[in-house]
Design brief:
By secondary structure, the chain is an alpha/beta fold. The protein folds into 3 domains: about 5-135 and about 335-385 and about 420-490, Rossmann fold; about 155-325, Isoleucyl-tRNA Synthetase, domain 2, CATH 3.90.740.10; about 565-610. It contains 19 helices and 25 strands. The strands form 8 sheets. Strands 7, 8, 9, 10, 11, 12 and 13 form a 7-stranded mixed sheet that branches. A hairpin with a 6-residue loop joins strand 7 and strand 8 (about 180-185). Helix 8 (about 335-345) runs antiparallel to helix 9. The radius of gyration is 30 Å and the shape is globular. It starts with 6 loop residues before the first strand and ends with a helix.
């Protein structure tokens, strides 16, 4: 509770589908060290635990669970599905918090929050409506990252780019109306040829100067498309000719708008080919790729195939290959929110530890793109927008408010229906340092005024923009204050071969097994032994064994010192001198350790010995 002491506040937010892994072990051990130290310093330490609802991952788990029972999500409807989702959350959603207790995390467990509890739901909807009124939330048709497994749009930050072995297909198109005249393009996605609207070349490329005003025929289907000239095309790359497929590539989409090209969407939401493709309709995109390569070769259109290394985007949640897709979604305008959020890091009001991440943060914030916040799911906060039969939108909390808005604007009030989509989970998580203290419901309550801004945030570098930057934006927008003063960015726990530990690779021990073998204190010390901020941790079980032995020695030393007594007066002088010497050593060591903590050198603080 708020009192006269100096507050020290930390918040955590693992997702509700999570179970304790080695990264959590490291992260929460560091937080626990900081919180316990603050208590020892006499501060009123508040460590708020909680979970987010992990909309994509949770919905996927519930859908699979229902499928095992022979139940389809679409067959039971939204309301019944949400009953199943809440039941799953009640049964499994607190697993990671219980595991953190076994780790010894000294959270204020009675303050545990969840992003979909009523008050936090209200905060999300209120912020959505407020930002829409300010012109910072808008709805528009844009190219998005589409997950064909989760059947939803995902943000740029939820796409993991992996270098993979790929193939570059050189395909020739006949020039319309000419005998044996061709123009060759190169593509890694030959199936998208079926959605081509143009061929583009650079206006100064002499190789194609004679093709101005001419058209090409799309292989296999014979569609006539213009050969356009645009400076966007790189003459030196590939053949210097670029196929333009506005429905399936971000840059092609922009070219399509500029040159008023037809947009032909050849893919369904699940990644199968649509009727617009004309060929391979209903086939999965990768099966269609194999077929079209074979057919292109048979028809004389395939010039050659190159083996290349290629960066491919994968969904962070399902590991499906992301498909660029034109879609009507809700977005947050980020540039206006990003400017002040960058300033507070550059001027030191929020300090990143280690400082090397400041340049990464600066790059992201200066190149920020609008945030797609709508998700084609049912688990989450349903978007507070209503549509009439004319497609007009009213952003508000209730149908009655929507009717009033439509009436005031002299618009139809027929067929009113709420948006089916939900808001991105991160849209609730960026409000976390404020919402856990009910700062949106009651901006002047005692808790928010006392505990906000929080002190230190401990997290992983991969969510520096995902979560950290957005929390800073929300804090400045709604409290006119930064949400925390320091951000400690941990390293990644890796195995002896340098690989990131994961269940998929089978190289990650179960943290609870480690606790059972070495004790919670032993594991915590082991995690800290070689984990300087921002640097990766080369993990080995011997670290935990070393940590257990160290913890035992500290415990035994404490028992010995606690048992010291002054047996007679003749020894009191020497005992007093010994105590004074020990006190001076402790004071010197404490000063050294405090200096290391102030610089967030926690591993060095563990190893510190004052001479």
């Amino acid at each position: 509770m708020p009192d006269g002491r100096e507050p020290y506040t930390v918040v955590i937010r693992p997702n509700v589908t999570g179970v304790l892994h080695m990264g959590h072990m490291l992260n929460n051990t560091i937080q626990d060290v900081l919180v316990r130290r603050a208590r020892m310093q006499g501060k009123n330490a508040c460590w708020v635990p909680g979970t987010d609802h992990a909309s994509i991952a949770t919905e996927a788990k519930v859908v699979r669970l229902l499928a095992e029972q022979g139940i389809k999500k679409s067959a039971i409807g939204r309301e019944k599905f949400l009953e199943h989702a809440h039941a799953w959350k009640d049964k499994y959603g607190g697993v990671i918090l219980e595991q953190l207790k076994k780790l010894g995390a000294s959270c204020d467990w009675d303050r545990t929050r969840f992003t979909m509890e009523p008050k936090l739901n209200e905060a999300v909807l209120d912020v959505f409506i407020d930002l829409h009124k300010k012109g910072l939330v808008y709805r528009g048709q844009r190219m998005v990252n589409w997950d064909p497994v989760a059947l939803t749009a995902v943000s740029d930050e939820e796409v993991i780019h992996k270098e993979v072995n790929s193939r570059l297909f050189h395909v020739r198109y006949a020039v319309e109306g000419e005998q044996d005249t061709w123009i060759t393009i190169a593509t890694t996605r030959p199936e998208t040829i079926l959605g081509d609207s143009a061929i583009a070349v650079h206006p100064e490329d002499e190789r194609y100067a004679h093709m101005k005003g001419k058209r090409a025929l799309v292989p296999l289907i014979g569609r006539s498309v213009p050969i356009i000239f645009d400076e966007y095309v790189e003459r030196e790359f590939g053949t210097g000719a670029l196929k333009v497929t506005p429905a399936h590539d971000v840059n092609d989409y922009e070219l399509g708008k500029k040159h008023k090209l037809e947009t032909i969407d050849i893919l369904e939401a699940n990644g199968t080919l649509s009727a617009a493709a004309q060929l391979y309709v209903g086939d999965d995109r990768f099966a269609a790729r194999k077929k079209i390569v074979k057919d292109l070769e048979e028809k004389g259109h395939l010039v050659k195939i190159e083996d290349i290394k290629n960066k491919v985007g994968y969904s962070e949640r399902t590991d499906a290959v992301i498909e660029p897709r034109l879609s009507l979604q809700w977005f947050v305008k980020m540039s206006e929110l990003a400017k002040p959020a960058l300033e507070v890091v550059l001027d030191g009001r929020v300090k990143l530890h280690p400082q090397k991440f400041t340049n990464t943060y600066k790059y992201w914030m200066e190149n920020v793109r609008d945030w797609c916040i709508s998700r084609q799911l049912w688990w989450g906060q349903q978007i507070p927008a209503w549509y009439n039969d004319a497609g007009d939108a009213a952003v508000c909390r209730t149908e009655a408010e929507a009717i009033a808005q439509f009436t005031a604007a002299a618009q139809s009030i027929n067929g009113i229906k709420q948006d089916e989509d939900v808001v991105d989970t991160w849209f609730s998580s960026w409000l976390w340092p404020i919402s856990v203290f009910d700062g949106f419901e009651n901006p002047d309550n005692a808790d928010i005024k006392y505990y906000y801004p929080t002190n230190d945030l401990v997290t992983a570098p991969e969510i520096l923009f995902f979560w950290v930057a957005r929390m800073i934006m929300a804090g400045l927008e709604y409290r006119n204050e930064v949400p925390f003063k320091n951000v400690y960015l941990t390293g990644i726990v890796r195995d002896k071969q340098g690989r990131k530990m994961s269940k998929q690779l089978g190289n990650s021990p179960d943290p609870l097994d480690l606790i059972g073998k070495f004790g919670a204190d032993g594991v915590r010390v082991g995690m800290l032994l070689t984990s300087p901020a921002g640097n990766d941790l080369p993990y080995d079980d011997s670290l935990c064994e070393q940590g257990r032995n160290f913890s035992n020695k500290i415990w035994n030393a404490f028992r010995l010192v606690k048992g010291f007594t002054i047996e007679d007066k003749s020894q009191s002088a020497s005992n007093a001198a010994a105590c004074a010497w020990m006190r001076s050593r402790v004071q010197r060591a404490t000063a050294e350790i405090d200096g290391l903590y102030d610089r967030f050198r926690i591993t060095e603080a563990l190893m510190a010995t004052s001479s």
